[in-house]
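Escalated from tier 1: 4'-deoxy-4'-aminopyridoxal-5'-phosphate holo job.
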Amino acid sequence: MEREWEKYFREVDPYVPGEQPERPDAIKLNTNENPYPPSPKALEALKGLDYTSFRRYPAPEADSLEEAIAENYGLKRENVFAGVGSDDVLALSFLTFFNSEKPVLFPEITYSFYSVWAKLLKVKYETVPLVNFEIRPEDYRRENGGIVIANPNAPTGVLLPLEAVEDIVRNNQKSVVIVDEAYIDFGGTSALPLTRKYENLLIVQTFSKSRAFAGLRIGYAMGDRNLISAIKRVKNSFNSYPINTPAIVLGTAVAKDRAYYEGTIKKVTATRERVKKELRSLGFLFSDSMTNFIFARREGTSAVDLMNALREKNIFVRHFATPLLKDYLRITIGTDAEMDAFLAATREYLKEHGEL
Ligand code: PMP
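Tier 2 regenerated the structure:
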């Protein structure tokens, strides 16, 4: 029986993240993590941490971290806001910028957290269908209370060319346009330079993917100072010290080590291109991915059955049980050895089931 007070609960269907198996030997290709360790500068910073400093609150504006991010991108500090992963930054952006009677627009297939935040915050929204998994800028030429696109998109992996991103922003200068660039470092061109031209454009990035720092939870928004100060006002009405001291100190070290993460990206993208060829030769179909994952299906092969068979071998890939996505598996790019194990297990499954 429902208790009286339960009628007043804010009910939501939460976002469901990929499984984090306990087994240390698991081959984890299900949450788009980086298979390589973060910058060794983070380890140095960790060793240098003074644990007695933990008795104090952290810097409310994560000063050193925001400064290091700003410097890395040639921005001023006033153009950067850092938060607890890009999920935090995106959620705060929804809260700050999307408060209109007109619907916020985002693609029908995209990061599934967008609709969760919209529902939680009671933001009106409409989804826009993709065409062959591609975003068509002309579909965003209508009244709206804001726009969010992930570029490259997830879980499709498809990159929208910079001109098309600019087309969307140029035609929507009355509402805030958020471009979620969680995967941009794996082969795309960031729309960051456009923030100088368009005051309503917000770029959101993360240290979780290309910087191999998902566990420390660092994400950031970049854009015009008015957008940034508006998010900071909302954040300061919510939680004064969201980023903890170790994350600020280690994140600052990571932000500065550009050469290291560029090397990691090269390794991941080289493996990705090889895996694309191998998956094609096994008969898989997928749009070209510019991310650290491949979203693939295969005629005559059940995605769920293959996922479960891989799981038996301690290899984890991601499946989304929705009508539009149920035939696909999202496979994160791991190390070469991990991808070889995944490809061998997949080949074996297909042979055993007479599908190859
Ligand atoms: N945006 C997209 C498109 C993502 O796939 C993810 C990862 N789940 C995020 C944002 C959030 O990443 P994080 O909070 O780790 O920065």
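The chain has a mean pLDDT of 96.
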